[in-house]
Design brief:
There is one protein chain. With 141 residues, the chain is α+β, with helices and mostly antiparallel strands. Helices cover 56% and strands 12% of the residues. The chain is built from five helices and four strands. Helix 3 links the parallel strand 1 and strand 2.
Length: 141
């Protein structure tokens, strides 16, 4: 006698609620652990990059044009301050010279960084590092 699809379907029982719950818990634990590991690695790399920036940067090398309401400006400021990277910062809403500089750069957002003369829209520690490595430090700066 040959088995029909109907016979196979009746021979296979659906997974129990308990096994499905266990599978969901396992997926959540693995997903949470993976996210924790990614965050841990990003923080470690950020600290390493921050230490390198602090070693490469000299006063006057990095100027940041910011906005008082810009969360990305705040994060960039916090990163560089925490890593002890020397930089200057001005705010386009409260400093007319800063607003004029912002317009002269043709910047389209904040933060706008000037790293040894190179303009960067947004904050990328890797870009800052690369410019500091490639461009010689200005005399007297």
């Amino acid at each position: 006698m040959t088995a029909t699809p109907r016979d196979w379907a009746s021979a296979v029982s659906p997974p129990s609620r308990r096994s499905l719950t266990g599978l969901v818990v396992l997926v959540l634990v693995v997903g949470g652990a993976a996210e924790w590991w990614r965050e841990h690695q990003a923080q470690r790399l950020g600290r390493e990059l921050g230490r390198e920036l602090a070693q490469l940067a000299r006063p006057g090398d990095i100027a940041m044009v910011s906005s008082t309401s810009c969360v990305f400006c705040t994060r960039a400021n916090q990163f560089m301050t925490l890593q002890q990277v020397p930089f200057t910062e001005c705010f386009i809403e409260t400093d007319p010279a800063c607003a004029q500089r912002y317009q002269a750069l043709g910047a389209s957002g904040t933060p706008t960084l000037l790293v040894r003369g190179q303009v960067q829209l947004g904050f990328s520690p890797a870009f800052v590092r690369d410019v500091l490595r490639a461009q010689p430090s200005r005399p007297g700066a």
